[in-house]
Each structure stands twice: as structure tokens, then as C-alpha cells.
Design goal:
Elements (H helix, E strand, L loop, with lengths): L13 H13 L2 H13 L6 E6 L3 H12 L3 E6 L7 H9 L4 E3 L6 H12 L5 E4 L3 H8 L10 E4 L2 H12 L6 E4 L4 H24 L7 E5 L3 H12 L3 E5 L3 H9 L3 E2 L2 H4 L5 E4 L9 H4 L7 E4 L9 H7 L5 E4 L2 E5 L5 E5 L5 H4 L6 H21 L6 E3 L5 H13 L8 H7 L5
Parallel strand pairs: 1-2, 1-4, 2-3, 4-5, 5-6, 6-15, 7-8, 7-10, 8-9, 10-11, 11-14
Antiparallel strand pairs: 12-13, 13-14
Helix pairs in contact: 1-3, 1-4, 2-3, 2-15, 3-15, 5-6, 8-9, 8-15, 15-16
């Protein structure tokens, strides 16, 4: 299998990658059941899949399930800092999946790898941030000649897809895996909350208790981050542009301030909005000495990095792995984590495997549905098929040993009748 076309750092890391993948699999019992079902039923036989995803052990287990179902897969990274080189090697050498990903590659290589996986002329696209779909539509539309659909698993990617659909340029049916209840509740809220703080603490070794943590954005990801920061003893301030979300934060007991008032008192400032220029030059100029900046939105545009570079009077230096210090003209030091990219993947390992178990099980079942139902679908952004989310949640409860009540026939009749 090592003869597969691939571009990874070192195939000699494969056995270390296998150990990492198998460790993650222990916490992914639902996906294991999906894997076994796919291996028996082969719902993806003959399907070529192009994926742009974080090259992690959890992703490897998703791709193993799809491969077991008959899919031929080519994988590129969705973030240069999140690639686990040992996992990439294991995917190629042990699991028969073509991988084009190396940790820390430059932007040109990143873009080239996206084109390479598209050159496999895939039937299905799996995306994380809409980069793969965007490149296919903008640069190489001819490579979509055999594509029938795909999935998108991030908030940022779904936003981009909806814009493409509104403007009439989206050529494929794309399922918004991100918009399921399990994805938003567990992946975005619990996963992002824990893994973001994990990245911050690994990069800084800083105490969270007693510090002022500013969370920019109070969607599902921001809510989870705020909850976990408060649980560790931080004073949490929320910034928002949406009145409803801001009111929600107030009702949950958080202080809500505009960014120009929050930035000067932040010990740690984390953006998690999915938008650009959330922390701008005027906010950077007001940060206190030693303030830590991090981003947990998908792209590195939430913090105005060019302005930070321009304001710095000294060459940035790495004070710790994934922690770069910028010195301003008045001597203040600002610490930027993971180059302003996703801190939970750039400075840590992303979401726990138990969280990704649900998200990737939903994605796997949706891919199988697409493989069978694509002929009746129109281009646009689609919801995950009815029942998939509930099925995965039920399997997860079963794996946890949790039992719940069931509706009686009388209750079902009552809920489905308009008569008292």
C-alpha cells in the first residue's frame, strides 16, 4: 500500500500513526459500528472521494469507515498546522488512502494539494471550510465532471456555500453536516470549548483561573468556550454583534462589552466568530502588556495580522512552541498563538475523539446516503437526512450505557393529532 500516490513527510512514522489512530478509535464506538456496517454493505463501492480535512487520528477513523464501505479516497489537509505527520503516514502505508499533507506546508503547496485530490475526478467531495469546493468551482471546474455531491462540516464553510448557492454558482448538492443538532451542540460547543482552552494552555502554560478572558462571538463555539473558561475560574467577557446572542450571554451571567472596551482589559482574547477583522488595529493598540491573542475561527482573518506585524518594532520571536511574541513601540509585548490560525488544532490536537465520534458518524452516514440518492438532488445546500442525527445520538447513548424513555402509542397519537 505504500506505493500509493501521496505526499507525506515520512512513511517511517506509520506505526506511530497507527497507535495514535487506534487510541482514538477506542473513544469512537459509534463510528466503529458504522465502519462494520459499511464493510458488510459496501454502500460506497466504486465511488471516488476527495477530502479536504484536518489530518488527525479522528479523521483517519472516518476515512477508514468510508474506505471499508468501498470508497477510493484522496485526502488533502484543511489547515497546514493541524496535520499529524504520523497519522498521514499511517493512512498511506497501512490503510490504503492517498494523502497529500505535511505539517507546516506553505500556502502554495497547500493549494497545489487541493488541486491534486481534485484531479482524481471525485464523485463526492468532503470539505472543511469550503476550500476544496471553492478551488473546484473557481479554478478547475472541469474536474467536477463526475462529481455528484458532497458534505461540509464547518460553520464557516456552510456560510460560504450558502453564498455560492444564493449567487447561483454552486454546481453540486452539498449537505450542511455542521447544521445538525449533534454537530452544533457537541462538536461546536463542547469540542471547541475544551480544545480551544487546551491549545491556549499548551502554548502558554498559563493559569486560566483569575484571568480575564475575552470571547469574541457567542455562537455555539463561543458559548462552549465561555462556559469552559468560566468553569476554570476565568472572568469571562463576551463581545457580540448579534443582539439576541448578546442578550443570551447577559442572561447567562457574562459581562458583555464592545471590543474597544473589552480589549484593554483582556489577559486572553479569543476570536471565534467566522468573520474577518474582529480584532483590528485600534484594538491591538489598546492591549495590555503580555496579552495573549488566539483564534478558534476557521480562517486566520479574524485578527488583523498585517496590522500586528506593522505595529511591531522588533522581529517576532517564538517564545514557546506556537507562541510568537510581538514587541510594540512602547515596549508592550503581545503574544499570538498558532499564527492566528485555529489554536485548538495548531497548538493542540483538536476536539476529543469522543466528540468527533458523533460528528463523523453523521458525516459517514450522510456520505452513504448521498451515494445512493444523488440522482434526485439539485445543486444547493441541503440538510442532513431526517433521522440520521437521532440515530447517531441513540447509538452514542447506547455506547455510554444510558437508557431513556420511549413514547407510548397513546403519546405518539396525542402528539400527532390536533384534537384534544
Amino acid at each position: 500500500m505504500a506505493s500509493l500516490h501521496s505526499d507525506v513527510a515520512d512513511l517511517g512514522l506509520a506505526q506511530a500513526g497507527v497507535r495514535r489512530v487506534e487510541w482514538a478509535e477506542r473513544a469512537m464506538p459509534v463510528l466503529r459500528k458504522v465502519h462494520d456496517r459499511f464493510a458488510a454493505e459496501r454502500p460506497l463501492a466504486g465511488m471516488r472521494v476527495a477530502a479536504c480535512m484536518h489530518v488527525t487520528a479522528e479523521t483517519a477513523n472516518l476515512l477508514r469507515a468510508l474506505s471499508g464501505g468501498g470508497a477510493e479516497i484522496a485526502l488533502a489537509a484543511s489547515n497546514p498546522l493541524s496535520t499529524q505527520d504520523d497519522t498521514a503516514a499511517a493512512l498511506v502505508a497501512e490503510y490504503g488512502i492517498s494523502v497529500y499533507a505535511r505539517a507546516g506546508i506553505d500556502p502554495q503547496s497547500y493549494d497545489r494539494n487541493l488541486v491534486t485530490v481534485l484531479e482524481q475526478r471525485p464523485h463526492l467531495l468532503l470539505d472543511d471550510g469550503c476550500d476544496l469546493v471553492n478551488v473546484a468551482h473557481m479554478e478547475r471546474p472541469e474536474l467536477l465532471s463526475e462529481a455528484v455531491g458532497g458534505c461540509e462540516q464547518t460553520t464557516t464553510g456552510v456560510i460560504r456555500l450558502r453564498r455560492m448557492s444564493t449567487e447561483g454558482v454552486l454546481k453540486l448538492p452539498m449537505v450542511a453536516v455542521n447544521d445538525t443538532a449533534t454537530k452544533r451542540m457537541f462538536d461546536n460547543r463542547y469540542g471547541t470549548g475544551q480544545s480551544t482552552l487546551d491549545g491556549i494552555m499548551r502554548a502558554t502554560n498559563a493559569m486560566i483561573a483569575g484571568r480575564t478572558v475575552v470571547v469574541a462571538g457567542f455562537g455555539y463555539c463561543g458559548r462552549g468556550l465561555a462556559e469552559r473558561a468560566r468553569g476554570l475560574g476565568a472572568r469571562v467577557i463576551v463581545t457580540e454583534v448579534d443582539p439576541v446572542k448578546a442578550l443570551d450571554a447577559v442572561m447567562q451571567g457574562y459581562t458583555v462589552l464592545p471590543m474597544d472596551e473589552a480589549a484593554p482589559i483582556a489577559d486572553v482574547l479569543v476570536t471565534v466568530t467566522g468573520n474577518r477583522d474582529v480584532v483590528r488595529a485600534e484594538h491591538l493598540a489598546s492591549l495590555k502588556d503580555g496579552a495573549v491573542l488566539a483564534n478558534s475561527g476557521h480562517f486566520d482573518v479574524e485578527i488583523d495580522l498585517p496590522s500586528l506585524e506593522a505595529m511591531s518594532v522588533d522581529i517576532r520571536r517564538e517564545v514557546r512552541p506556537q507562541a510568537d511574541e510581538y514587541v510594540l513601540s512602547d515596549g508592550r509585548r503581545i503574544v499570538l498563538l498558532a499564527e492566528g490560525r485555529l489554536v485548538n488544532l495548531g497548538a493542540a490536537e483538536g476536539h476529543p475523539a469522543a466528540v468527533m465520534d458523533m460528528s463523523f458518524s453523521v458525516q459517514a452516514l450522510t456520505v452513504a446516503w448521498l451515494a445512493g440518492a444523488h440522482s434526485g438532488l439539485e445543486p444547493g445546500v441541503l440538510d442532513v437526512p431526517d433521522g440520521v442525527d437521532t440515530q447517531v445520538a441513540g447509538l452514542e447513548l447506547e455506547a455510554l450505557g444510558v437508557r431513556i424513555d420511549r413514547l407510548s402509542p397513546d403519546q405518539l397519537e396525542y402528539l400527532n393529532s390536533w384534537q384534544v
